[in-house]
Amino acid sequence: MIADPSVSRRKFEREVAAALAHKPFHEQGVWILRAEYPTVFAVLITTLNVPIWRGILCGVHINFTNFDVRPPSLKFVDPFNERPLNYNECWKFTRLNLKSPLPGDTAGPQQYEAVPLLQAFDTNKPFLCLPGVREYHDSSAHTGDSWFLHRRKNMLIYILTILQQFGSSSASLQVQFVQAINPSIQK
Questions:
Q1: Mind listing the pLDDT tens digit for each residue in 112-150?
Q2: Domains, the chain, ranges and CATH?
Q3: Other CB atoms closer than 10 Å to residue 168's CB: what's the count?
Q4: Fewest beta carbons less than 10 Å away: which of 66, 69, 113, 185?
Q5: 56-63, strands of its sheet edge to edge
Q6: Cβ neighbours for 60, distance < 8 A, ≥ 6 positions apart
Q7: Residue 164 contacts residue 44 (beta carbons within 8 Å)
Q8: pTM above 0.85?
Protein backbone atom coordinates (compact mmCIF):
# COMPACT_ATOMS: atom_id res chain seq x y z
CA MET A 1 0.00 0.00 0.00
CA ILE A 2 1.34 3.43 -0.94
CA ALA A 3 0.21 6.75 0.51
CA ASP A 4 -0.66 9.61 -1.81
CA PRO A 5 2.54 11.74 -1.81
CA SER A 6 0.55 14.97 -1.42
CA VAL A 7 -1.15 13.52 1.68
CA SER A 8 2.20 12.37 3.08
CA ARG A 9 3.63 15.86 2.48
CA ARG A 10 0.72 17.55 4.30
CA LYS A 11 1.08 15.16 7.24
CA PHE A 12 4.85 15.77 7.26
CA GLU A 13 4.27 19.53 7.36
CA ARG A 14 1.83 19.15 10.29
CA GLU A 15 4.30 16.92 12.17
CA VAL A 16 7.14 19.40 11.65
CA ALA A 17 5.02 22.43 12.61
CA ALA A 18 3.95 20.72 15.84
CA ALA A 19 7.54 19.75 16.69
CA LEU A 20 8.88 23.25 15.97
CA ALA A 21 6.15 24.71 18.20
CA HIS A 22 7.10 22.30 21.02
CA LYS A 23 9.06 24.87 23.04
CA PRO A 24 10.74 22.52 25.57
CA PHE A 25 12.77 20.80 22.84
CA HIS A 26 15.34 23.57 22.49
CA GLU A 27 16.05 23.66 26.25
CA GLN A 28 16.07 19.85 26.40
CA GLY A 29 18.78 19.54 23.76
CA VAL A 30 16.64 18.57 20.74
CA TRP A 31 17.36 20.89 17.85
CA ILE A 32 15.66 20.51 14.48
CA LEU A 33 18.17 21.93 12.02
CA ARG A 34 16.39 21.16 8.76
CA ALA A 35 13.01 19.87 7.67
CA GLU A 36 12.61 19.36 3.93
CA TYR A 37 10.07 16.79 2.82
CA PRO A 38 10.43 13.89 3.44
CA THR A 39 13.33 14.20 5.94
CA VAL A 40 13.88 15.95 9.26
CA PHE A 41 17.48 16.45 10.38
CA ALA A 42 17.83 16.96 14.13
CA VAL A 43 20.68 16.86 16.61
CA LEU A 44 20.66 15.83 20.26
CA ILE A 45 22.74 17.92 22.62
CA THR A 46 23.60 16.91 26.18
CA THR A 47 21.92 19.05 28.80
CA LEU A 48 24.63 19.10 31.44
CA ASN A 49 24.45 22.01 33.89
CA VAL A 50 27.93 23.27 33.07
CA PRO A 51 27.85 24.80 29.56
CA ILE A 52 31.50 24.03 28.80
CA TRP A 53 30.78 20.30 29.26
CA ARG A 54 27.84 20.18 26.89
CA GLY A 55 28.28 18.36 23.64
CA ILE A 56 26.48 16.99 20.62
CA LEU A 57 25.36 13.42 21.23
CA CYS A 58 24.30 12.50 17.69
CA GLY A 59 22.34 13.52 14.65
CA VAL A 60 19.26 11.79 13.26
CA HIS A 61 17.45 11.69 9.95
CA ILE A 62 13.75 10.96 10.36
CA ASN A 63 12.22 10.11 7.00
CA PHE A 64 8.47 10.38 6.40
CA THR A 65 8.31 8.76 2.95
CA ASN A 66 4.95 6.97 2.56
CA PHE A 67 3.75 8.32 5.93
CA ASP A 68 1.46 7.27 7.50
CA VAL A 69 0.83 4.06 5.67
CA ARG A 70 4.37 3.26 6.87
CA PRO A 71 6.01 4.56 10.05
CA PRO A 72 8.79 7.13 9.90
CA SER A 73 12.30 5.77 9.39
CA LEU A 74 15.04 6.85 11.79
CA LYS A 75 18.74 6.78 10.90
CA PHE A 76 21.59 7.87 13.16
CA VAL A 77 24.02 10.22 11.40
CA ASP A 78 27.15 12.19 12.17
CA PRO A 79 25.87 15.63 13.21
CA PHE A 80 28.59 17.43 11.23
CA ASN A 81 28.53 15.74 7.83
CA GLU A 82 25.35 13.59 8.06
CA ARG A 83 27.27 10.39 7.30
CA PRO A 84 25.33 7.31 8.52
CA LEU A 85 26.75 6.00 11.79
CA ASN A 86 27.61 2.41 12.64
CA TYR A 87 26.33 0.84 15.84
CA ASN A 88 29.64 1.25 17.69
CA GLU A 89 29.67 4.98 16.91
CA CYS A 90 26.30 5.66 18.57
CA TRP A 91 25.09 6.56 22.02
CA LYS A 92 23.41 3.41 23.36
CA PHE A 93 19.99 4.84 24.41
CA THR A 94 19.18 2.62 27.38
CA ARG A 95 15.93 2.56 29.32
CA LEU A 96 15.64 1.27 32.90
CA ASN A 97 12.59 -0.92 33.45
CA LEU A 98 11.35 -1.89 36.89
CA LYS A 99 11.74 -5.66 37.23
CA SER A 100 8.71 -7.61 38.35
CA PRO A 101 9.21 -9.08 41.82
CA LEU A 102 9.36 -12.83 42.14
CA PRO A 103 6.24 -14.48 43.57
CA GLY A 104 6.27 -14.15 47.35
CA ASP A 105 9.05 -11.52 47.35
CA THR A 106 7.46 -8.54 49.05
CA ALA A 107 10.21 -7.04 51.19
CA GLY A 108 13.13 -6.79 48.80
CA PRO A 109 14.36 -3.56 47.23
CA GLN A 110 13.07 -2.59 43.82
CA GLN A 111 15.33 -3.78 41.05
CA TYR A 112 15.77 -2.36 37.58
CA GLU A 113 17.00 -3.90 34.38
CA ALA A 114 18.71 -2.02 31.58
CA VAL A 115 16.87 -2.36 28.27
CA PRO A 116 18.86 -1.20 25.23
CA LEU A 117 16.73 0.81 22.82
CA LEU A 118 19.51 0.86 20.23
CA GLN A 119 19.86 -2.41 18.32
CA ALA A 120 21.81 -3.72 15.34
CA PHE A 121 20.99 -7.34 14.54
CA ASP A 122 22.36 -8.69 11.26
CA THR A 123 24.22 -5.57 10.25
CA ASN A 124 26.19 -2.86 11.96
CA LYS A 125 23.37 -0.41 11.14
CA PRO A 126 21.83 0.84 14.38
CA PHE A 127 18.08 1.23 14.77
CA LEU A 128 15.87 2.45 17.56
CA CYS A 129 13.94 -0.57 18.85
CA LEU A 130 10.73 1.35 19.45
CA PRO A 131 7.18 0.81 18.20
CA GLY A 132 6.39 3.57 15.73
CA VAL A 133 9.80 3.51 14.03
CA ARG A 134 10.01 1.82 10.61
CA GLU A 135 13.12 -0.21 11.38
CA TYR A 136 11.41 -1.67 14.47
CA HIS A 137 8.39 -2.80 12.45
CA ASP A 138 10.61 -4.13 9.63
CA SER A 139 12.64 -6.25 12.08
CA SER A 140 11.92 -9.98 12.02
CA ALA A 141 11.66 -9.85 15.82
CA HIS A 142 8.54 -7.67 15.59
CA THR A 143 6.59 -9.06 12.63
CA GLY A 144 3.43 -9.45 14.73
CA ASP A 145 3.49 -5.86 16.01
CA SER A 146 1.62 -3.86 13.38
CA TRP A 147 2.44 -0.21 12.78
CA PHE A 148 -1.29 0.48 12.71
CA LEU A 149 -1.47 -0.32 16.44
CA HIS A 150 1.04 2.45 17.18
CA ARG A 151 0.03 5.26 14.81
CA ARG A 152 -0.53 8.49 16.63
CA LYS A 153 -0.78 12.20 16.17
CA ASN A 154 2.53 14.06 16.65
CA MET A 155 4.70 11.05 15.81
CA LEU A 156 7.74 13.30 15.31
CA ILE A 157 7.34 14.77 18.81
CA TYR A 158 6.98 11.25 20.21
CA ILE A 159 10.18 9.97 18.56
CA LEU A 160 12.22 13.07 19.45
CA THR A 161 10.94 12.92 23.05
CA ILE A 162 12.09 9.30 23.40
CA LEU A 163 15.51 10.24 21.98
CA GLN A 164 15.68 13.15 24.42
CA GLN A 165 14.63 11.11 27.47
CA PHE A 166 17.00 8.21 26.89
CA GLY A 167 19.71 10.16 25.08
CA SER A 168 20.47 13.81 25.68
CA SER A 169 18.93 14.05 29.17
CA SER A 170 20.51 10.79 30.36
CA ALA A 171 24.02 11.63 29.19
CA SER A 172 26.24 12.59 32.08
CA LEU A 173 29.82 13.49 32.62
CA GLN A 174 31.96 11.44 34.94
CA VAL A 175 35.26 12.94 35.99
CA GLN A 176 37.87 10.96 37.86
CA PHE A 177 40.87 12.54 39.51
CA VAL A 178 43.91 10.34 40.01
CA GLN A 179 46.63 11.47 42.36
CA ALA A 180 50.06 10.64 41.06
CA ILE A 181 53.60 11.43 42.08
CA ASN A 182 55.70 13.03 39.41
CA PRO A 183 58.73 10.70 39.00
CA SER A 184 60.94 13.62 38.00
CA ILE A 185 60.70 15.09 41.50
CA GLN A 186 63.66 13.92 43.55
CA LYS A 187 63.93 13.95 47.33
A1: 777 788 888 777 899 899 999 999 999 888 888 999 999
A2: 5-168 (3.10.110)
A3: 25
A4: 185
A5: 30-36, 39-45, 56-63, 73-77
A6: 40, 41, 42, 43, 44, 74, 75, 76, 77, 163
A7: yes
A8: no
